[in-house]
Amino acid sequence: MTKTALITGITGQDGYYLSQLLLQRGYRVVGLVPPSRQASVAKLDELADAVTIAGVDLTDGAALRQVVVDYQPQEIYNLAAPSFVPASWEDPLGTLDLITGTATRLLDAVRQAGLETRFYQASSSEIFGDVQASPQAETTGFRPKNPYGAAKLHAHWTMVHHRDRYGLFACSGVLYNHESPRRPPQFVTRKVALAAASIKLGLSDRLSMGNLDAKRDWGYAGDYVEAMWRMLQADTPEDYVIGTGILHTVEDLVATAFASVDLEWQKYVDIDPKFLRPDEHFQLVANPTKANTQLQWHPQVSFEQLIATMVQADLTRLQAGTVQPLPALP
Ligand code: G4F
Fold it and tell me: How far apart are CA 39 and CA 20, in angstroms?
């Protein structure tokens, strides 16, 4: 029997890699895309014609209930979120509604439909925020430090409540930073990759950064969607921390990206205070032992491979004229 998976946030980075994985495994993939954002379906590139797009407003509970009844999905992956953390300070309520509201409405839709649908909630390392222990595991306490982390935590608890009270097969993946050539350039890995490629081609001559001492646990998005899928194939619904367990500084990232195209980063990089974050936390690092042992999930792409691949992808795009240099020469 062909399985059906519904995905919110299908036009984002993770939506692309998850759709690719599910299509390869024989699923019918249905993306729930708000009518006002239909143009973003083009971001799925060659997958756009292989998936079904349902035009649904994620703030409309009745519409979500109807789409669940119509498609009778075996699995739902709730990935939709405004994912750039600093932006959540500009619109805390909008962030809460899109993240927590969508999770609540979808869980409610599954419960009311009385289906056996398995539900994946995209959670984030940002729920650990002001970390209570390092590295963080499934048992570590939560203390988010920004509206984005608080909304993700609320969505996480909403999922737990539906699992405990109504017996839904629902899980959270607490994902650490996961990157790819599909990351938008406001995120630091893509910003650095695009800048290194731009400078290499003589299209730019500088890169302004925030805190080079900031640390993150960075992995490859393609590996992380495999973890999402494995969570929904398990015998029992459980939550998992998903990361590499390895911290790198932003300076490591810059040095790795520039070295991959034989550039000395110190010649090009300066610090611009506008990229510094007052709510920063530098010890967000995963203890992925539970995912390693229970899901047999292990990241396949190293930090160095990931960054070199991102820089190469931007060299190719810049040469083809399909992206703009960052930052462009004046
Ligand atoms: O790439 P970032 O903007 O990602 P951040 O804030 O860690 O959030 C990402 O990962 C979370 C965990 O998975 C997700 F929940 C979230 O949705 C998102 O996907 O920043 C990474 C680090 C930060 O420490 C930041 O302060 O890079 C530091 N940084 C230093 N200079 C910079 C810059 N970040 C950006 N975006 N731009 C800079 O110039």
Answer: 19
Q: Which of 19, 83, 123, 124 is catalytic?
A: 124
| Domains observed in the chain | 4-175 (3.40.50.720), 183-217+246-284+302-320 (3.90.25.10)
pLDDT tens track for 100-137: 999 999 999 999 999 999 999 999 999 999 999 999 99
Q: Going by CA atoms, what residue is nearest to atom 16 of ligand 1?
A: 83
Is 148 in the active site? yes
User: What is the pTM for the complete model shown?
Assistant: 0.97
pLDDT digits (tens, 9 = 90+) for 247-302: 999 999 999 999 999 999 999 999 999 999 987 888 999 999 999 999 999 999 99
